[in-house]
Design a protein that fits this description.
single chain; about 100 residues; mainly alpha; Helix Hairpins; 3 helices
Length: about 100
C-alpha cells in the first residue's frame, strides 16, 4: 500500500484538530501543554510530507530542518511551561486554569 501526500495531510489535520479541541476544552494546564505538543507534531508531519512529496529530489531537506527547529522550540516550551505550572501549583495548590486568573500571588 502506497501512502500519498493526502494521507499524511489528513493525519496531520486530524491530529491538529484533536490538539486544538483539547487545548480549548481542557482545564488542566498539563493537559493543555500536551495538546499543544500534539498540534506541533501535526505541523511537523505536514512539513515533512510537503518536503518529501513536493520536492522529492531536493538536496536540502527543508521540511526536516524546519521540523527539527519546531521540535527544539517545543522542548523549550515544554520546559518553561512545566516550570510555570509547578510554580503556580506551589502557590495555589491547583493546576486548574479556571482558578488561575492572574499572575499575582
Amino acid at each position: 500500500m502506497h501512502f500519498g501526500l493526502e494521507h499524511y495531510l489528513i493525519l496531520s489535520a486530524i491530529m491538529f484538530s484533536i490538539g486544538l479541541y483539547g487545548a480549548l476544552a481542557k482545564r488542566n494546564a498539563v493537559a493543555i501543554l500536551m495538546c499543544i505538543e500534539i498540534m506541533l507534531n501535526a505541523v511537523n508531519i505536514a512539513l515533512v510530507a510537503f518536503s518529501r512529496y513536493l520536492v522529492p529530489n531536493a538536496v536540502l531537506l527543508t521540511g526536516q530542518v524546519f521540523a527539527i527547529f519546531i521540535i527544539t522550540v517545543a522542548a523549550a516550551e515544554a520546559a518553561v511551561g512545566l516550570a510555570i505550572i509547578i510554580a503556580i501549583y506551589r502557590s495555589r495548590q491547583s493546576v486548574d486554569v479556571e482558578q488561575v486568573d492572574s499572575m499575582k500571588g
